[in-house]
Amino acid sequence: MRFSKLHSLGNDFLVICPNEELDMTRIGDFARRICERHTGVGADGLLLVAQDDPARNEGSFRIFNADGTEAEISGNGLRCAMACLVHHQKVQGTRVVFQTPAGSRTCEVIEVKGTLYEIRNDMGMPRLRSSDIPFDDGQSLERVIDYPMPINQKVYDITCLSVGNPHCDIFVDRFPARIEWHQIGREIESHPFFPNRTNVEFIRVLNRGEIDVLFWERGVGETLSSGSGSSAAAVAAILKGLTDRKVKVWTSMGALTVEWPPDDQVYQTGPAEIVFEGEYPAI
Fold first, then answer.
1. pLDDT (average), residues 21-44
2. Are 34 and 46 in contact (CB under 8 A)?
3. Which of 13, 65, 104, 282 has the greatest number of CB atoms lying within 10 Å of its CB?
């Protein structure tokens, strides 16, 4: 089975492009095996990308986390999928609308330098109601902003939202030690208030136009970056009035830009890079 490995700011994916035969009844187990970093190829997730008619500029997108669970969406994954299709000349032009479990998402290539692609993609309208995230503490909340969440004998003010998948954001003056934020992220990811589990971001606001973020990703753990997490972190900062509506999000391996125009959907612009291609035993 042919695959491509790509990454966006260190958030890496294995992409299986059109015409690969898969036993979808075993896809979760396959994702776990191929994403395992010691006995497989190694990645944060597996992307299944299809484009049956290159002239239509439409594609399908599914993502499976390293633990084998299926996620709704991935901003970095969308850009990697787009770069893979363009690299393999599976699409005509520079714009593709992907159908995902979270709805349609548009990607557009802005610039290409060898195997490095700069891509702008939309992340849809952020959903803020507790039932839409979902976040369930027994109440119906219009917004979940600075909600006091007790974790390990401490109380953290969390801000939650969905950009197609659930996110919990914590604002800090300085980042906790790695072992500490890993523990917090793990506890919140599987907290009973999040029936579908959640992604967790730790955010430092640098100024009105920049934030610095650490990512604990549902089904993966620590990731070097996250597209949906960057979008959620920026939206949370905007909701709290801490930044303007265009935000540079700094990750462990560089930055991407998130924009949230008034009464509009979220957009982000960032890189995707092809690392290598190979073959893996089919399932």
1. 93
2. yes
3. 13
